[in-house]
Amino acid sequence: MDSDYEKVKLFIEENGDEYYLCEIEDILGINEETLLEIFKELKKDNIITENHYFETGCLNNKICADCFEPMEHEDTKLEEDSKGDIQYKHIYRCHKCLKKEYY
Description:
By secondary structure, the protein is of the alpha+beta class. The protein has helices spanning 2-15, 21-28, 32-44, and strands at 62-63, 70-80, 86-94, 100-102. α1 crosses α3. The termini are far apart.
C-alpha cells in the first residue's frame, strides 16, 4: 500500500479534487476501498484538507470531508441572495457520521 499511498498523494498534490473518485480509481488502477483508506491517511497527514470536495462521479454524490463515506443529496432549497437573485442550495448528508454539507 505504500506505493499506492505515494501514487495517490502525488496525484492529489498535482490535481486537487478536479477528478471524480471513479476517475482516480481508473487512472491510478486502485480499487475504491483502498483509495478511501488512503484518503483517510492523507487527511491525517494534512494532504487532503477541508478545501477538497471529492465526488464519486459515477453516482453523482459527494464524499464526506470528515470520514470519506458517500453523501447523498438530501434536499435543494431556493434562497434569495443579497442582490435579489434566486440561488439553489444543495444539501448533502453523510451516511456514516450524518454530517450535512451545503453547496
